[in-house]
Design a protein that fits this description.
The structure is a single chain. The protein has 165 residues and is α/β, with parallel strands linked by helices. Helix content is 25%, strand content 33%. It is built from 5 helices and 8 strands. It has a 5-stranded mixed β-barrel with strand order 2-3-4-5-7.
Length: 165
C-alpha cells in the first residue's frame, strides 16, 4: 500500500502486521538526542512549525553517507514513541523489537511501528530533499524533514499486535 503524508487514522486502521507499505511525502527524523527534546517542546506548547498530526518519524541520523534505521528500543527513542503518537505521529520507522507497553501505546493512539532493513544507499536514493527543522546543534542527529519518494517499510506493530511476539 502506498501512503502519502499526512496520514489519517483511517489509513492506519487498514494496516495489519506484515503489510508492506511505501511512504511518500515529508517525514521527520530523530534519534536519542532529539526525540525527547521534541516531546518536551511540543508538551510545553512550542513547535508550532513542526506539525506532527499525520506525520512519520524515522529513527535515524542524516549524514552525507545516507540514512539508515537506528534501534528504536533505545531508552530515549522508545520512551518518546507513546508521547509522539499522542501528539499525532502515525508511523514510527526504525528497527528492533519494542516493548509490549509501547505496542499498547501505539494502539491507543492510532499509530503503528514499521521496520526498515538497514539499506542506507537505497534509502538515500529515495530522498528528494532535506532540511534541518530543529536542533541544528545536534549535527547529523538534528531533527530533519526529508521529502521522500518510495520509502518502503513493513508494519511491525499495530492494533496491539507485534511481529516480535
Amino acid at each position: 500500500m502506498t501512503i502519502t503524508t499526512p496520514i489519517t487514522r483511517e489509513v492506519i486502521q487498514q494496516l495489519r502486521v506484515g503489510d508492506k507499505i511505501t511512504i511518500c511525502g515529508p517525514i521527520y527524523t530523530g534519534r536519542d538526542a532529539v526525540l525527547p527534546k521534541l516531546v518536551a517542546l511540543k508538551e510545553s506548547g512550542g513547535g508550532e512549525d513542526i506539525p506532527l498530526e499525520g506525520s512519520v518519524v524515522f529513527h535515524t541520523a542524516v549524514s552525507p553517507a545516507g540514512v539508515g534505521p537506528t534501534s528504536s528500543n533505545k531508552l530515549e527513542i522508545e520512551s518518546s514513541i507513546g508521547p509522539l503518537s499522542k501528539l499525532g505521529v502515525r508511523i514510527h520507522l526504525g528497527k528492533g523489537k519494542l516493548s509490549e507497553e509501547t505496542v499498547r501505546l501505539l494502539d491507543q493512539n492510532d499509530s503503528i511501528y514499521a521496520v526498515i532493513p538497514p539499506v542506507t544507499a537505497l534509502l538515500e536514493s529515495q530522498i528528494r530533499s532535506r532540511r534541518v527543522v530543529a536542533y541544528p546543534e545536534e549535527g547529523m542527529e538534528a531533527l530533519h524533514e526529508l521529502q521522500v519518494e518510495g520509502f518502503t517499510a513493513i508494519v511491525a506493530a499495530a492494533h496491539g499486535e507485534s511481529i516480535y511476539k
